[in-house]
Amino acid sequence: MRFADARLEPVWERVAEGRRLGRDDGRLLFETDDLLGVGWMADQVKSRREADRVYFVINRHITPTNVCVLSCSFCDFARKKGETGAFEHTIEDMVAMVRDGVREVHIVGGHHPDWPFEYYERMIGAIRAAHPEVQIKAFTAAEIDYFWRRWRIEPKESLARLKAVGLQSMPGGGAEIFSARLARLLRYTGKADPDRWCEIHGIAHSLGIRTNATMLYGHVETPAERVDHLIRLREQQDGSGGFLTFIPLAYQVGTTRLVPRQTPPTDSLKTIAAARLLLDNFPHVEAYWVVLGEETTSVALHFGADDINGTLEDERIQHMAGAPTPAGVAREQLFRMIRDAGKVPVERDALYNVVRVWPR
Ligand code: SF4
């Protein structure tokens, strides 16, 4: 490989030898104009791990409520109680949302001011009882922290109780960007800070609950803050080892308009590639089709991503922020995103057990 930016050559030497990249390498990956060089390195790493396999899951997003006590300035999803557009689902509603054939439900919502912790316990228990075959992935670390802030239930207790009624894994949201500067600027100081977010994931891992991790990018963060975020996740994974997938989340401009327009696909491709190269201890890096669009998702499968998420059926959080993609897709559309990239679709469950390898 001849790099357009010769500064990438020593980076590639380290990657090829299986050595870990440092903070300066990370900054260079974001700074360089040699997008194809960064992508090529990430593709080598992905191919070494997974060859041509790309994972997807038949899943269902459930958003119990968008009522939230916080007002993060990048969020177009949350509403106050009684405000136009606010919704609150009953447990019966949520149980009925899970149709036959779904392997994973993904449950994330606002920080509701009144719902007691027991409501969430009953929610998970009812879905588990009605659909014993479905894997339940639920509640970000920010929500688990909120159960402590609101009801004084320690994360170790809340996670153990939720696991006892059926929770199997946790999504990776609520991390935003690990930066005190941005937490103040974007008004998310009221939720779990980086140490707390990582502590809660560590507790989950110690209880045998696998989790994911995210990063909200493409707003007013700096490349250095992205690198700090990725390295903090890598350190946590070194310590507790239970992360499955890293999912970069491109900020949707919506009505919050922290920046004038959506970050371009080139930035998303570079972010996915840099994550694959820096997160050497994360099994999977995802190209989340909801925030990327189908076309960029296909391209991202040549930039280090080995997963595209799933059918979703009714994604709310990104769509209330103006994501132009559909709220859900059929399995055939997932096949198209993967096959357009010349890759092999592998249907998985929430824990990456292979359900079926489909024809290329
Ligand atoms: S990002 Fe989460 S915590 Fe912040 S306002 Fe939106 S729903 Fe609430």
Would you mind describing this structure in some detail?
- There is one protein chain.
- The protein has 360 residues and is α/β, with parallel strands linked by helices.
- Helix content is 42%, strand content 14%.
- It is built from 15 helices and eleven strands.
- Helix 2 packs across helix 10 (223-240), helix 5 packs parallel to helix 7 (155-165) and helix 9 (194-206) runs parallel beside helix 10 (223-240).
- It binds iron/sulfur cluster (SF4).
What key phrases describe this protein's structure?
single chain; 360 residues; alpha/beta; TIM Barrel; seven-stranded parallel β-sheet; four-stranded mixed β-sheet; 11 strands; 14% strand; binds iron/sulfur cluster
The parts where pLDDT drops under 50 for at least 5 residues are: none
Helical run tally: 15
Tell me the name of the CATH homologous superfamily.
Aldolase class I
CATH fold-type name: TIM Barrel
Ligand names: iron/sulfur cluster
Could you state the order of secondary-structure elements as H and E? HHHEEHEHEHHEHHEHEHEHHEHHEE
Provide the number of structural domains.
1
Q: How helical, in percent, are the residues?
A: 40-55%
Radius of gyration from CA coordinates: 19 Å
Distance between the termini: 27 Å
What general outline do the C-alpha atoms trace? globular
Q: Sheet with the most strands?
A: 7 strands, parallel
Give, in spatial order, the strands making up the sheet with the most strands. Answer: 2-3-4-5-6-7-8
Tally the beta strands.
11
Determine the strand fraction and express it as a percent band.
5-15%
Task: Give the overall pLDDT as a whole number.
Answer: 96
Query: Could you say what the CATH architecture is?
Result: Alpha-Beta Barrel
The top-level CATH class is: Alpha Beta
Structural class: alpha/beta
